[in-house]
Design goal:
single chain; alpha+beta; Immunoglobulin-like; 5 helices; globular
């Protein structure tokens, strides 16, 4: 009897001291899901991106260039029985009644040339970006980073997708409000 009481007491102490781990919620993760698609937008800090590129041995000048941009990792999954056509040129980013400009692949390519960044690093960087255009077959997923110049205020991303074999179906649109550049943690 005494041994059982000790075991129950120890179990109670362990449950209080070591509660079951709940998955950590990411308050910066934005998700829109409907019958057509699931889209997730996650802001990344300059420190996170610098660590990622440093791990791939990018030169310091290239890593420094990424610090001036805001990176948003985007994941898209087609949940519909139809083709979704993704074209970032048809997406809008607005803030306080003005347009927020994406940093395009062409702009990154120009920056890398000006900084004399080797082609192997340019290629690695390019595959980390969200494709500009893509057809999503039913059930298909894709992801990558969308980049903008660092801004201090919130903005809204409206992503538009054409649908159907010839892009003639009913368009799909999703909106993410209150997005913001993720700041590095205080040191």
């Amino acid at each position: 009897m005494q041994r059982t009481t000790v075991h129950i007491t120890l179990l109670a102490i362990m449950l209080v001291a070591f509660p079951a781990r709940q998955p950590l919620a990411d308050p910066d993760r934005h998700i829109v899901e409907n019958s057509n698609l699931k889209m997730v937008v996650i802001p990344r800090s300059a420190e996170q991106m610098a660590a990622f590129y440093e791990g791939r041995e990018f030169p310091a000048r290239a890593i420094e260039a990424t610090r001036n941009a805001c990176f948003f990792t985007i994941s898209i999954r087609n949940k519909s029985p139809d083709i979704l056509w993704h074209d970032t040129a048809k997406w809008t980013l607005t803030s306080q009644d003005s347009q927020v400009k994406r940093i395009t692949r062409a702009q990154w390519r120009q920056s890398w040339r000006q900084l004399d960044v080797a082609q192997r690093f340019q290629s690695t960087f390019r595959w980390t970006l969200l494709p500009d255009t893509l057809d999503f077959q039913p059930g298909e997923r894709e992801g990558g980073n969308l980049t903008i110049s660092r801004i201090p205020h919130n903005f809204t991303l409206t992503a538009r997708f054409a649908t159907g074999e010839n892009q003639q179906g009913q368009p799909v649109s999703v909106k993410f409000s209150n997005l913001q550049c993720r700041e590095d943690p205080a040191t």
